[in-house]
Amino acid sequence: MIPDLDTGSEMDALLLRSLQGYVRDTFGAPLWQAVCRRAALTTETFEPMLRYDPGTADRVAQSAADILGRPVETIWEDMGTYLVTNPGHEGVRRLLRFGGASFADFLLSLEEMPGRARLAMPDLRFPEMALAELGPDRFEIRCLSRIRGLPRVLVGILTAMADDYGTLCLIEAVDESRI
């Protein structure tokens, strides 16, 4: 089941606010303003606790991709990396490190992430995630979300966390829901 098909969710708002921060911090306010104009937005600032129309996050990311001349998947992945590596988001990295002493432990804890996130934000509806161990040091993550870019954000987060753990690995999106 993919939640919130008809209404926006807190996840939309968090992704929009994160995308806003990523684009502004990385490329500057004028480029963010151009993205907002291209996406036909009525605001340039997103509030994490508000709800926005479904599809807005994907539309804004596509606008950023068009302006920057990059694939939208790259925009989402870079934003995921930004969420972990930007000094202003140190709390995110530390929270993710509670997943275990090794990158494999971290991966095995991903299914617990929605519960941990609900401790801070009780109404947050995380995407469904399932981890399958395919073999020694080989995993597949399924991430079901109506927000098309969310699995790619997860790829960026995983890439940054692998680096943080000092783990050399290959992380790739197999399709729209499998990593």
Structure report:
It is built from 8 helices and 2 strands, in the order αααααααββα. The protein has a two-stranded antiparallel sheet with strand order 1-2. α1 packs across α4 and α2 packs across α3. The N terminus is likely disordered.
Q: What is shown here, in short?
A:
The chain has 179 residues and is mainly alpha-helical. It has eight helices and two strands.
Shape: globular
Indicate the radius of gyration in whole angstroms.
Answer: 16 Å
Class based on secondary structure composition and strand pairing:
mainly alpha
The helix content is: 40-55%
Count of alpha/pi helices: 8
> Taking strands numbered 1, 2, ... along the chain, how are they ordered across the largest sheet?
1-2
Terminal Cα separation, in Å? 18 Å
Number of separate strands = 2
Largest sheet: 2 strands, antiparallel
Low-confidence residue ranges: 1-7
Which helices and strands appear, and what pairs or packs with what?
Layout: H1 10-27, H2 29-38, H3 56-68, H4 72-85, H5 90-97, H6 103-108, H7 113-120, E1 128-135, E2 138-144, H8 150-165
Antiparallel strand pairs: 1-2
Helix pairs in contact: 1-2, 1-3, 1-4, 2-3, 3-4, 4-8
Main attributes of the structure:
single chain, 179 residues, two-stranded antiparallel ribbon, 8 helices, 52% helix
